[in-house]
Amino acid sequence: MDEFARRLLDWFERCGRHDLPWQTERSAYRVWVSEIMLQQTQVATVVPYFERFMARFPGVESLAAAHLDDVLALWAGLGYYARARNLHRAARMVIDEHGGELPRTLDGLVALPGIGRSTAGAILAQAHGLREPILDGNVRRVLARWHAVEGWPGERDVERRLWQLAERHTPGERVADYTQAIMDLGATVCVRRRPACPLCPVADDCRARRLGVESSLPAPRPKRERPRRRSAVLVIQDLERRVLLERRPERGIWGGLYSLPELGETEDARDWCRRRLGAAVRGPERVLPTIAHAFTHFDLDLAPTLLRLDTDCGAIMDADNLVWYNPASQSRLGLASPIVALLESLERSDLAAAGEFDDPIGGREDSGGTRQDETKEGT
Known about the structure:
The chain is of the alpha+beta class. Helix content is 41%, strand content 12%.
């Protein structure tokens, strides 16, 4: 065991996190789910989602048997929804192709949807104590600073160098503890901004600290102009004050979740209702406040228009992925977070109760951030 790993493990004994829910009743399944949830998401955010997920899907069998809508409903608000779809697909593959047991090899795990090299290494290290390195965002930051590795970690040569360092420092014993320790160090001490170097167990020979560049490493992604997009959406109520929802395509933002129907640039809202629903609109349309939502690489403005139909459409075309939804009901659907906010606002307003368009509905601006980022889903 090298000195870096030894000091890190000593620090972990005193200061590391030992009571995370996936560390109790540790199993490959629980570690796997936690690692998928922790991709791009902080521990404090993940914990309640993980606990609810485990209560509903305690094992791979129950997850594989579930409907995707149930999985997405529990995931709603956590962001990066491709993770949930891949988790569900992988669970079914584990049942069908691996006898209900997650593979215990790196290649076997990486062959499952949503599992890359670092996630596979974390599963093998933490569930089985196998010597496999990891390189998540926290680990990249620790190694880039300690070794003063220049360049953006997304560049191939920089990433290759960091994997070599991760392999060098991963010990042959206490691998599960070491894996958690280096992740904890990056998450709690060697943080992105204002790292707490005086608290770091390996600060004395950190090259970035010696050079005074700890705050600038690792190098950030090269900046690109951030585009802004606009999408017109329809808030359509029937006579029972249910709202029409449409399932999003699996690829793209909010993949597989339910959202409001989008209106094309040249389409008219009333024509849309006649063409798709065979119904006319009663009363005037109401333009609601724009909802701003931030993704990693672009900003989205949702421009909702409220309409009431003059008839009860009843059942609608299932092939079009359209459903009538009562926001006050207890039924759960996987809904995009800005849509949840809008429907809650609709439910609270006098509008839903009175059926009039006299009271405005306040939109909620959601700044997005890591939890709502969808760029890995094809945006």
